[in-house]
Amino acid sequence: MDTPLRANRSFRLYFVARIVSQLGDQLYVFAISWFVLDLTQSSFHMAALLAINALAAMAAAPIGGLIADRVSRKAILVVTDVVQGGVLIALLAFQQAHLLSLGMLYAGTVLLGLCSAVFSPAAGAIIPGIVGKEHVPPAVAAGQAASNVCTIAGMLLGGAMYGLVGITGVLAFNAACNLVAAGMQSRIQVSRFEIAPGAAAGPAGVFRELRDGLRHVRADRAVFALLLVNTVFTLAALPIAMVSMPYLFNVILGASPAQAAFPQAAIWAGIILGSAAAARLMKTRRRPETLIAGGLLALAIHSVLMVALVGGRAMLGPQGMSVACTLANLVAGAAAAFFVVPTYSLFHARTAEQFRGRFWGLEGALRTAAMCAGYFFAGALAQRLPLEAVYAETGVMLAILGVVVMRLKASQAAAYGKTASAVAPPR
Question: Could you give all domains of the chain from N- to C-terminal order, each with its CATH number?
Answer without folding.
Answer: 3-187+205-416 (1.20.1250.20)
